[in-house]
Fold:
Amino acid sequence: MPSRIDRYIVRQVLFGTLFAMLVLCVVLVLGNIFKEIRPFLVERGMSITFVGKFIVYLLPFTLVLIIPWSFLASVLLIFGKLSSHQEITAMRSSGLGLFRIATPVFVLGLFFSGICLWLNGTVAPHSKFKLKEMVYQEALGQPMRFFDPGVVQARIPEHRVYINARDGENSVRGFHAYQITKKGEEAAPQVYFYANEMDFEIDRDKRRFDLRLKKAYAEFYKEDGTIERVYADEAQPWIIPYAQDGPRRIKPDQYDNAQIRDLLNDPSKQLAEGSIKPEKLPDFAFERIRRYSFSFAPLALAVIAIPLALQSRRRESSAGLAWTIFIAFAYFIAMEVAEEFHEDNPAISPFTVWLPNIVCLALGLFLFRRAAQRS
Structure:
């Protein structure tokens, strides 16, 4: 049965975590709203309903990032405060060992890890898919936003478009466009178009733009490395689809763990539809393992946070915040390095993504033992 000291520590750490989550939620959600739907909200007068749905879909995978860092900050600040006020010394004097004092935090760490696992493996993938789909469908309903000036448009299939200025509803100046055939690092331009002026019409039934280029210039990049240049006073029609034909590509972060398991057991349907390429199947296996690893970040970070907090006897707030930033940054970098390492070496076991947690646990246990010996 939990003692009064256990309840006291749990209450302090839990309230600190919830407060940090609230602050970080406001900051990250507002930042993502401005980043993702600024064109809809500011330039198109988007409804409050759209913004509300956006926030609801955004919260689950935002919480996956917020919970570990909020718990880390709370543990560092609370235990730094307990140490500076000699409360840890009083608990030790009553016969409690350091591991026993930290037991409520470990229980909370397991609790938050379970929440992260549930969010990361079930809720967040569905929310991310619905969020992308909502933004995509909204963009299809307002195709004019693909020609907003001053923005590199990358959502047009197989094209990168930039507009200098808009003259009217269907007329622009300074039209730049690259036509590409692949995505990611292999994306190479096939054709570059420039037009001093351009008029266009929208075919909503076929979801395409019919362009008329004036004072146009084009470069065709051939496989042998040569470039063919073409000049024209007027060129029409040039057709650009603004919706992807055929099945849309399925991304690993938009499948929950159960769907990934079923996919890996029998990928024939998705492969036949073309929604997944055979060489991308290992990415789904890695994504599932990465979720399990990152979900246990609260517990791993708590193990290393407690002994570090006990060393901050003075100015516990500033020291706790500094350690929070340092540890969170180091953990995030380690996780990114593990992911990049696996992408560059697919033959390497995907379980390498567990290394950041293993390092945190090993270092934390070492610091725990040293702190217990010192006290």
